[in-house]
Write a structure and sequence with these properties.
166 residues
Amino acid sequence: MPTGKLGLLSASIFRSLICFAFIALSADAQTTAPNEWTWMGGSSTEPAQGSGYAGVYGLSGSLPGSRSGASSWTDREGNLWLFGGNGFDSKGVEGYLNDLWEFQPSIDEWAWIGGSDTVPAANGGQPGVYGKLGTPAVGNVPGSRSGASSWTDGNGKLWLFGPLGI
């Protein structure tokens, strides 16, 4: 887990994926018909009923697990960020997640930035470490949650609000 990025995220920066079926609506009207969808990658099969795809956490080949209710946003460089949701951890255990991911379209690669790679069986999610109110710290991390609202302000800072979670 890169601590430099985690420190930035703790200070201010923290799509819903279902079965890794990444689909993009074409914005290039000159080469494709309007409203034409393109499968960009990931599995073309659905997991068994009541299950999902486990996340792959690590330094290379990382890929977030199946999930719903994740918060997402894009940064100034056009990278996609994904936080939490209800989904599947590295062991295929379902629960509330507090993992943070970055997708860089320029290199077509996901990176696990921080948060936990597992969901504790006892409570279905990871508790947060919030530190001192208004003070950024490398060790701060939001608790597991699903359905949170997120937005970025004019300075590029991420704001994450509520709701369900640990």
